[in-house]
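User: Reviewer 2 asked us to show a designed sequence for the structure in our supplementary figure. I'm pasting the structure tokens here. Could you produce the per-position amino acids so we can include them in the response letter?
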């Protein structure tokens, strides 16, 4: 079916967009950097993957996880309970401060661990006393350490890791940094923290933690660099080809799309999703390309995001 000439089927288009993966060069560079950092002898305990919203961080960690799983296929065959990669979404703090107890529980849940039993270890000096309120943080920490060991974990992914920085004062932030460092020290798994630029403060909390961090930047495509602009346009045309849209028509939208999406391919895909929904609501034949304008992020939003991105890029350059 050709959407530009036939009745537009939004459900088919949305399905195709949900399946689309565009392995653009910045993704490959980030995946290669992370993979290299995990090689024997690299002496890396924590990797901090940062980038603007829509840059492709989720795609990157999927690719990294896939490579690790493939590398340890023999291990999984010998040890059916082995989990070379454990991935969790870091819990939000909400109105309260971040809870490592919740994080530890999520890690054990992702590893399909049974309920906790046995003696409870003492909390570390920087950890709060939680006696009388369920499993102590020390007990959970030790359980996670044993879990990572038994499951032969090689990579522990904490998505939205900037939630760990949600604290009310510098002393608590230091405690969180020490707990994070302890989690990395206590296992053979590399800790991959995935954040937008709100995760950059991890580099400022504590010098001991900073020394253990390998920074990987998944950058946007800049509209003032011709080669990067071309890569973004190729991503646009890849989406168009998947939806059977007119290539020449789409090229007319390269400039506004790279500007409003701030050079992020993930934001480009999201824009197409919104345009498809608008087209479905319009119920007209074919695809109305002008709906891409309606689906783009607003100028004000793109302007604010661009300012944040430029500030973060400068900070990373100075790091």
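Assistant: Here is a per-position design you can include in the supplement:
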């Amino acid at each position: 079916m050709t959407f530009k000439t036939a009745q537009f089927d939004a459900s088919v288009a949305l399905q195709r967009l949900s399946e689309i993966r565009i392995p653009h060069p910045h993704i490959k560079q980030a995946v290669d950097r992370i993979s290299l950092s995990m090689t024997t002898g690299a002496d890396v305990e924590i990797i901090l993957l940062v980038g603007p919203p829509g840059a492709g961080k989720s795609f990157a960690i999927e690719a990294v996880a896939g490579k690790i799983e493939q590398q340890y296929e023999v291990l999984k065959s010998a040890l059916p309970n082995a989990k070379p990669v454990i991935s969790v979404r870091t819990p939000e703090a909400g109105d309260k401060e971040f809870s490592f107890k919740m994080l530890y529980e999520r890690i054990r849940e992702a590893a399909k661990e049974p309920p906790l039993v046995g003696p409870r270890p003492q909390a570390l000096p920087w950890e709060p006393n939680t006696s009388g309120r369920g499993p102590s943080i020390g007990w959970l920490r030790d359980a996670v350490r044993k879990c990572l060991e038994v499951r032969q974990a090689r990579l522990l992914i904490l998505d939205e890791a900037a939630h760990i920085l949600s604290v009310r004062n510098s002393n608590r932030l230091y405690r969180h940094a020490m707990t994070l460092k302890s989690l990395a020290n206590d296992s053979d798994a590399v800790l991959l923290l995935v954040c937008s630029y709100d995760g950059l403060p991890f580099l400022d909390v504590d010098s001991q933690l900073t020394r253990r961090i390998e920074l990987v930047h998944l950058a946007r495509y800049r509209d003032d660099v011709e080669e990067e602009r071309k890569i973004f346009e190729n991503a646009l045309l890849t989406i168009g080809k998947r939806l059977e849209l007119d290539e020449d028509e789409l090229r007319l939208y390269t400039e506004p799309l790279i500007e409003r999406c701030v050079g992020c391919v993930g934001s480009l895909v999201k824009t197409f999703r919104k345009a498809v929904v608008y087209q479905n609501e319009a119920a007209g034949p074919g695809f109305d390309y002008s709906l891409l304008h309606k689906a783009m992020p607003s100028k004000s939003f793109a302007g604010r995001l661009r300012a944040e991105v430029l500030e973060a890029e400068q900070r990373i350059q100075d790091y």
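For the response letter, you might also mention the following. The two ends are 50 Å apart (CA to CA). The longest helix spans residues 299-318.
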